[in-house]
Amino acid sequence: MTATCAILPSSLGDTGTLRRGACPSIAAPMRTGDGLLVRLRPAATALTVQDLLALAYLARAHGNGLVEITARGNLQLRGLTETSVPPLAAGLAAAGIVPQRGVAIEVPPLAGIDPTELADAAPIADALRAALADAALSLAPKLAVVVDGGGVLSLADMVADIRLDTVAGTQGLAWRLSVGGDRVTARPVALLPRERVVEGVMATAAALAAIGPAARGRDLDPAVLAAALGADPAPPLAAVAPAHPLGAHRIGTETVLGLAPAYGQIHADRLAALVHALAGCGATEFRLAPHHTLLVRGLSTETLAAAEAAAMREHVWSTREAPGRTVSVCTGSAGCASASFDTHAAADALVAEAGDLLDGSFDVHVSGCPKGCAHPAAAAVTLCGTAAGVGLVLGGRAGDAAAAILPAGALAPALARLGTLLRARRADGETVGGLIDRTAPDTLASAYQGRQ
Ligand code: SF4
After folding, report:
1. Best residue among 263, 371, 375, 397 to mutate for probing ligand 1, ranked by most atoms within 8 Å of CB
2. Nearest in space to 298 (alpha carbons), one of 276, 278, 283, 277
3. What are the chain's domains?
């Protein structure tokens, strides 16, 4: 098939895959424990029922059927092979699903339909995509641009190399250009009128390219950029707290429901069943959103409960209160050859035995092996698969030494014992994170192993 050559560039080397840490697009999939992984963000802001059914079909036909929504609202298809990526790309093209290419440019998921936003960021994002494609600069593969027009689901808390935040001033709307951070932490460069924002971002991108192909926003000097643009440095912006996309939102006159696959992952068969059920509830449009979320439009107040019930049937969360939301979980044995146990079943057992203790005050990580894909940093509590069983790692990374190890089959009662111990020791008003901090690791390890 001629499309194959265009899809897999020769620059990828012998394996045709990327190193870890690069950006696994369909042109450059990444090798993981369960085969090749492709990350894609459809160019269209909204997906239809047919689009999602096509994605489910393609994930099952060409991968291992696992579909993920990432923390930044990208789609990931897993378990692909060198020979299955080209037909996947052809299938996407046939379905009319065009993946974004080049620099990731993100806008609030409700851009253009949220009456509370200050400005629709989508047209600016489109203009930037065109300008960046024309310029063909050599930029870091993971470079991210955020264009935030505000609104209920603004991207104020999303870190980017280059940001544009709309600001209402006495002269009308302007856009603050900043680099290397979120709305609050990014370093301000300049306040620009709408007609200069593309120029401002392109000057910033050119400055990055001049530093080198690995340069990121943090490497830039805002004062130098401001001088080059002939603009005064812009002031810092006040923090705003965007809503979490999960759950039901009243947007103007419509109800938008945010759904998140449990632990960020859903099998294609369940995705197709969910989409059919949601279509039966009136769903017409879907938008990918941060925090592993899929926004559903077209529901009514009458069909909302049925849509939420359909989500629950397919192991999809529709509320921020879902206790498993605080647990980072990798693919596990359902789709990764490196995993020594079923991480999703373990996370479910954790929620069943100690869900009341998952108060968000500490990180919990369930990892199929010491690689720790789902949470590379240290976590307060990690359950990590090893050749000897499931290790309990306290205050460390998945690959750190375990305080105790048990066979996977003994995990549920071990988690129940840990839950009993923590409930008995918890002081009034104490966070569970604080409680774990002040509890001796040996005490936790003994409860895990049933030595108490
Ligand atoms: S951490 Fe999980 S997904 Fe990553 S290689 Fe290990 S088992 Fe596979």
Report:
1. 371
2. 283
3. 1-8+20-98+247-321 (3.90.480.10), 110-229 (3.30.413.10), 327-449 (3.30.413.10)
